[in-house]
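Feature request, filed as a ticket because there's no other form

It would be nice if the structure record came with a short human-readable summary line next to the C-alpha cells. Right now we just get the raw output. Example of a typical job, pasted below so the devs can see what we mean:
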Amino acid sequence: MLTFCRRTLLVVERIEMIAAMVLFAVIILSIFAQVISRYGFSRPIVWVEEAATYAFIWIVFLGASIGMKRLSHIRIEALSLVLSARARSVLRMLGYGVMLFVAAYLCLRLPVVIGIESRSGSVSLPVQLPRMWFYSVPLFVSSISIVLTLAYYLVAEFASLCTDEPMTYIDGASIDDVAREGI
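Raw output as currently delivered:
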C-alpha cells in the first residue's frame, strides 16, 4: 500500500512540475511579447502583468507542494543530531503531524475563502475570471497535495519505526541515503 501511495505522489509531483514549467514558459513568453509590443510597436498589452502575476502565484504554491514531496523546505536539525535513530524518527513524526494539522486546517477553511473570492474578478485579463482561481484555489490545491504527502510521510515513518527498516521517501531514497548526502 505504501508503495502505491509513494508512486502516486511521485506522479502528482511530476504533474505539478510540468504545470509549473508550463506556467513559467507562459510568463517568459508573455513578458517577451509585452516588451516587443510596447517598445517595438508602441502598443502595450494591458493584461500581461496581471497574467504573469497570477501564473507566478500558481508556481509558488506548486513549488511549495513539490518542496514538501522532496523534503527540501528549510528545517533545523540541531536537536536531531544528538538523538538516537528512534528518537529522530519520533521527532520527524511529530513535525509531520504538526505540518499535517496546519495544512488540513487550511484545506477545511479555504472553501469559505474560495466562496468569497468567487464574487470578484480579474481586472485586466481579456476574459473575466473569478479571483479565486488566482489566490485561494492555488493555495487549496497545494494544501491538498501537501496533506497527502505529509500523511504518506507520517505513515511511512511510523511503519519504519515498527519494522526497523529505513523510511522510503517519495523519490525512492531511504532516510539513510538522505543522511549520507547531508540533506
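Something like this underneath would help us a lot:
Residues 2-181 form one domain.
Residues 36 and 177 are 48 Å apart (CA to CA).
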